[in-house]
Amino acid sequence: MAGFLRDCAGRNQAVFFFGGDHRAIYALRDRIAADWPALRVAGICDADFAGPADRAVLDHIAAADADVIVTDLPKARFRQFCAQCDTARIRGKRVNLPGSFPSFAAGEAGALSGRFLPRRLRRFGAAAKMGLAFCRIVMMQKLRGAFPPADAVTPRRGSRG
Hints:
Elements: H1 2-10, E1 14-18, H2 22-35, E2 40-45, H3 55-64, E3 68-71, H4 75-87, E4 93-96, H5 100-105, H6 119-146
Parallel strand pairs: 1-2, 1-3, 3-4
């Protein structure tokens, strides 16, 4: 998505973002404003509803007069959206990047994205995570072996049983 946005900014294209829920779309807008201030955002609209877009949503998209409409819809819903745009005579190239808005808004890898951490530190973090997982496995095996099962009865020394 970053390359696509860079390309749109370089071509001075107005972009409309449609899809995701209200949190994802606003987080996406904020990230784009911070990272690509040259990108012309014509508008945004969440798709936090079931079924087709209603007339008010289509009018909102049409009024934005965007060069490109970017969505993150499932394929079937994107086809339905394109048909609605054709019927409403909404111009603009339509690009679908299914499910991409939340992950891109969060920085691809979540709150501590790779763009904030040097590669060496990311590799160390991954190695440390694997090491801790291994230690957890060994510790759980040791703990299971340290305590006999509750239903096991062990005879005492010197007692007759």
